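Hi team,

As requested, here is the filled-out complex form for the zinc ion run. I kept the field names the same as last time so the parser does not choke. Let me know if anything looks off before we queue the next batch.

— J.
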Amino acid sequence: MIDTKLTPGSANNAATKTASQIAEQVVGEMTWISETQGYCRCPGHAQHTNQSGRRDCVVYLDRVPTVHCLHASCASTVERKNRELREAIRAGHVSGAPEPSARELKRLMDARQRCERIRTRASKSQPVVLKHWTWRYDEIVASSPTTIPEARIDQTRLLLGAFKPSDVVWIGDRSDSGQPDCSVCFKPVEEWLRHDEFNSQLICPVAFKPGCHSRSNDNVVARRFLVVESDTLSKDEVGAVFRWLREVVGAELVAVIDTAGKSLHAWFVWPGEDQLDDMKLVLPALGCDPKLFTASQPVRLAGGLRDGKVQNLVFFNQGGVR
Ligand SMILES: [Zn+2]
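And here is what came back:
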């Protein structure tokens, strides 16, 4: 589950509400995935004729604020909310941006329609993906191209080896960020590899600026991996999405980590920005969350301990970042 809530655009001036604050007043609490996009509970969820998912309803705030839901049965309620949202933002939001030209507006709406088509298609395909691309937990473990070492430290080292040796990587616990003494959690991979033990649970799948002490987006110099998980699919189900990403989308799977909780984390080589946009739409519709919304989002470290249980590396494909 994405547990870091990204709240964009906090108001500098208490009297002026941002579009995102106004949107939350109109549609309720949102999970933001960018400055202008987030998920909310569908205002017409009571009318849904099939099961509602946590990522069914998107709010777009760029230019023409719009609520979009994957269900059709809620259309009239959603349309009413759209009018309310636009009216509230027009009335309360002081935006310096000029009105978009007709051409710009068309381009924007075309792009948005494309997004919604992708989301709808992905959501409809979920049963097919789960059925046809089955990759059960025991099959994932059995198909690891690299033999997984038993010792925790060797599992951590294997995962670190997927980064570039010079990458400055953060390893720590959730609160190890923001204070000058947190700089000990940021080290080049080649230095981490000389450690005899790791007592931390978490790692970020990115490379940071040398000498920094905070896991902020500003300190990220390169995204290295896209980490995908699901908090709705079981360990036997989620492999189907991992396999589908690998075989159909062409994403390069590097590692799978058993979080010692309910979920598995799949580490993919960071896709290009183009592909990333589609993944942001497709993954939630398939029941998965890409853990990428903030760079400061740490994930489970392979070989780390969680309440006395090992966060086991269960699949590793040598190669990593080239
Ligand atoms: Zn709906």
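Two things worth flagging: Residues 102-132 form the longest helix (31 residues). Residues 1-15 have pLDDT under 50 and may be disordered.

Thanks,
J.
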